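FAQ

Q: What does a record look like?
A: Structure on top, sequence underneath. For example:
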């Protein structure tokens, strides 16, 4: 076993998966310990480098999480809720850091992740970007400073292949805005208005989602008050920002006690 910490990439064939395979392989602080795919996937049994159309790198894609995790200290997971929850139990048994960028998790999924976090480190965030997490902190600060005369709207845009809305990042920003006002987001969120909706309720936080083309990710937090607006904005132009954040989170988590963490913890915000 190498002294360099090993990281497994779950969903290796996906857009984020391929990006993460490259980032982990190229980072001198870690090594690619495994590449996971779902049973029956055409990549299973192939060298992950070869499957990506590149030279072989000595890591075979497997559909067996136990096999992939046997020589790993961490796993990075940008897949689907069911796959993420199933992997969390195995990562916890292996005492491996589980970095989760999966969105669309429901309350039942989150409760299962909390159970796994009693035995190992889980770092979960709606967005792994350093910039977005700074934006989240700023959103909470501005929300706390302004009174209810300022309406809060969150507008997000992503590529046409994204399957969930609002995005995990938009919800993360909404949580920060609600927390700044001492509110629970689930009590004040307005999503996807359509038809005769009536006047906007004071204190509510609105969400709008745009899907199209190859937009990597854009998020605006709008504070609209009488006579003025404050707009906080983050634009992602390269998906690698999410991967770099995830790798940083995995390495950071290897020095922590079991529990649930987020990128604010990783960045010390």
């Amino acid at each position: 076993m190498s002294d360099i910490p090993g990281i497994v990439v779950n969903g290796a064939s996906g857009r984020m998966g391929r990006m993460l395979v490259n980032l982990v392989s190229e980072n001198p602080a870690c090594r690619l310990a495994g590449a996971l795919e779902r049973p029956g996937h055409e990549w299973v049994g192939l060298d992950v480098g070869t499957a990506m159309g590149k030279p072989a790198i000595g890591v075979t894609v497997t559909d067996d999480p136990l096999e992939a995790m046997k020589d790993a200290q961490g796993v990075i997971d940008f897949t689907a809720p069911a796959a993420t929850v199933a992997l969390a139990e195995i990562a916890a048994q292996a005492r491996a850091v589980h970095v989760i960028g999966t969105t669309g998790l429901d309350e039942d999924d989150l409760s299962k992740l909390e159970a796994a976090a009693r035995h190992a480190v889980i770092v979960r965030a709606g967005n792994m970007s350093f910039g977005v997490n700074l934006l989240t902190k700023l959103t909470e600060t501005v929300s706390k400073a302004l009174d209810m005369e300022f309406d809060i709207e969150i507008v997000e845009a992503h590529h046409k292949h994204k399957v969930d809305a609002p995005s995990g990042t938009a919800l993360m920003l909404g949580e920060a805005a609600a927390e700044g006002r001492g509110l629970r987001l689930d009590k004040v969120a307005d999503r996807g208005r359509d038809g005769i909706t009536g006047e906007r309720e004071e204190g509510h936080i609105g969400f709008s989602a745009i899907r199209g083309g190859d937009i990597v990710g854009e998020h605006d937090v709008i504070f609209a008050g009488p006579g003025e607006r404050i707009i906080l904005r983050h634009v992602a132009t390269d998906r690698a920002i999410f991967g770099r954040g995830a790798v940083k989170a995995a390495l950071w988590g290897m020095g922590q006690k079991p529990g649930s963490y987020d990128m604010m913890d990783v960045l010390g915000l």
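Q: Is there anything notable about this one?
A: The first helix runs from residue 15 to 26.
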